[in-house]
Design a protein that fits this description.
Helix content: over 70%
Structural class: mainly alpha
Order of helices and strands: HHHHHHHHHHHHHHHH
Shape: globular
Number of helices: 16
Length: 401
């Protein structure tokens, strides 16, 4: 594959509403498939967590079983993410969905050893990371460039809502179906998602003709990280976000009785932020407020060091979580600096890195809380997040101030 320079192009910003996007058959197909896949992932994660908890009574293993797949996403980014930009990305996405279907179906086997279940968990995380790259590459081709941020916003909102509903529904279904029944339900949703892609998304043929593989993945990743501006964008997408997810992971340790309220406030703030930033702001507006949103993401968490009343912390978490919407303008900037033939891989690497840093953030902040009080650990992580945002602020034309 010839070397590509990540040339900058001007992003048009037509007013694009969610209803307009859903009239696009290809976007609707990708959106419905994404929703079904997110629901399947939530149900299978809940089922595996319940099964591991029943068998081991280990909080650590239970947490790893529910969220450990995020650590496998980095393997996809480092090895075979170039398949996201192969000659037939639609077929690739369908095949990856079917591979995930097989893995989830195997989890439904009652007597499966835990070692095999964890191996399947990592394998599914690997497939999911490649599928994310393929899906986002197709998304960038299915919608106009100026509609990319609203499209991601709608998918983010749906992901949050699906997780909330999925965990609530999973708890009910678990009592009636058991873990194996939940795995089968997740497998059915995964298969339906593959069928939706096959029926609604056309094959795109602008991809490079060279075969994807390890060498091509490394070459594109090296090119991605070769420019300081792109490195700053990725650091701002990964590190502050991951550290704040680590702060949220300590809510239960900080205040067990109000952890649910704090988590609900975070989800509500995230939904509001994605709605406002993705739907109501123009591309120029998103870029103008991107830096302030990244500061908002972390600054309110500094209050945890002072132990204010619970109502104050609920409001602080709600406001801070709206700052997660800073990912939208950053992703928009990364997209405009990426040549079309490698958009799938670049977006897949960004998504995998962000998910991996969320897992790392939870581990790092949780480890810090072994030596400091939970409130102090949350405040320290928030302070580091603010520092990273200040030090890695994109400069020049990448992000106007």
């Amino acid at each position: 594959m010839p070397s590509h320079r990540f040339a900058r192009s001007v992003l048009p910003s037509p007013p694009t509403g969610y209803r307009d996007l859903l009239r696009n058959k290809e976007f609707s197909g990708l959106y419905v498939s994404f929703t079904l896949t997110a629901a399947a992932s939530t149900l299978s994660g809940f089922a595996l967590g319940a099964l591991v908890n029943q068998q081991t009574r280990s909080p650590f293993l239970t947490a790893v079983s529910m969220y450990g797949a995020t650590f496998a996403t980095v393997l996809g980014a480092l090895t075979l993410m170039s398949v996201a930009d192969g000659e037939r990305p639609r077929r690739t996405l369908v095949l990856l969905q079917l591979a995930s279907l097989a893995g989830v179906a195997v989890q439904a086997v009652p007597a499966l050893p835990l070692a095999v279940r964890f191996a399947l968990l990592l394998t599914l995380g690997f497939f999911q990371s490649l599928g994310t790259g393929a899906r986002l590459g197709l998304l960038a081709e299915a919608v106009p460039t100026g509609a990319y941020a609203p499209a991601r916003s709608l998918m983010n909102i749906t992901s949050c809502g699906t997780a909330i509903i999925g965990f609530a529904l999973g708890a009910v279904l678990l009592r009636h179906l058991g873990p194996q029944g939940l795995f089968l339900a997740a497998a059915a949703l995964t298969g339906l998602g593959a069928a939706v892609v096959a029926a609604t998304v056309r094959e795109h043929s602008i991809r490079p003709t060279r075969r994807p593989g390890l060498r091509r993945t490394w070459a594109t990743n090296a090119e991605l990280f070769s420019h300081p501006g792109r490195r700053r964008l990725l650091l701002n997408l990964w590190v502050p976000n991951g550290l704040i997810v680590g702060c949220e992971a300590l809510f239960l340790s900080y205040d067990p009785g109000r952890a649910g309220i704090l988590l609900a406030a975070g989800s509500a703030g995230m939904l509001l932020g994605d709605l406002v930033v993705g739907r109501l702001l123009t591309a120029d507006g998103r870029r103008r407020y991107a830096f302030a949103l990244r500061l908002l993401l972390a600054a309110p968490f500094l209050l945890f060091a002072l132990h204010p009343p619970a109502a104050v912390l609920v409001v602080a978490v709600f406001l801070a979580s709206a700052g997660f919407a800073a990912t939208l303008p950053l992703q928009e900037q990364l997209l405009e600096q990426t040549p079309a033939p490698i958009r799938g891989q670049v977006q897949g690497v960004e998504s995998a890195g962000r998910m991996t840093w969320q897992g790392l953030g939870a581990a790092l902040v949780g480890g810090l809380a072994q030596y400091l009080a939970p409130g102090a650990a949350i405040a320290v992580a928030a302070g580091v997040s603010v520092a990273v945002t200040l030090l890695c602020r994109p400069t020049g034309r990448t992000e106007p101030t």
